[in-house]
Amino acid sequence: MSAALESVFPNMVRSSYEVTSPATDSYNCIAWAAGVTHQWRWPDPRGDEYWPVDAPRIATLEAFVLAFQSVGYTLSTEAELESSFEKVAIFVGLDAVPAHAARQLGSGTWTSKLGVQVDIMHGTLECMEGDLYVSVVQIKKRPWRVT
């Protein structure tokens, strides 16, 4: 699995990462970033996937910002760990359309769900950047939830 992941995400070679769960199609990166593991979240226009009612069903940064706001996230100016906040990073693809989201853990490392593939823990956001997820365009934060 490592060689396959590193071929898609070549920056992983320079960063620490660990596979933390097996592949599943029960949820995707957007759901995972929001702390959800029972549904796929995407703004598909037909309404086949879950998407918050207050967010447009079109893959734009505005729609993703509104979707994360619906679960308590607000704008953050930095990706660094803040002990009182859980953070999410929104990535765009080559077309500048949102393509991925990662969630920061209490340790300061990040976690990502890779489509229908595995979840991983990664030390930096940069290890996810490349041709698929080009760059982080926004960081969101919310107070840590008690579960």
User: How far apart, in Å, are the first and last alpha carbons?
Assistant: 32 Å
Helix and strand run: HEHHEEEEEE
Number of individual domains: 1
How many DSSP E strands? 7
The secondary structure category is alpha+beta
Nearest-integer average pLDDT = 93
Which strands sit side by side, in order, in the main sheet? Answer: 1-6-5-4-3-7-2
**What is the quaternary state of this protein?**
single chain
Percent of residues in helices: 10-25%
Structure report:
With 147 residues, the protein is of the alpha+beta class. It has one domain. The chain contains 3 helices and 7 strands, in the order H-E-H-H-E-E-E-E-E-E. It has a 7-stranded antiparallel sheet. Strand 4 and strand 5 form a beta hairpin. It is globular. The N and C termini lie far apart (32 Å). The relative contact order is 0.24.
Question: Nutshell version of this structure?
Answer:
This protein has 147 residues and is α+β, with helices and mostly antiparallel strands. Helix content is 14%, strand content 27%. The protein has one domain (2-143).
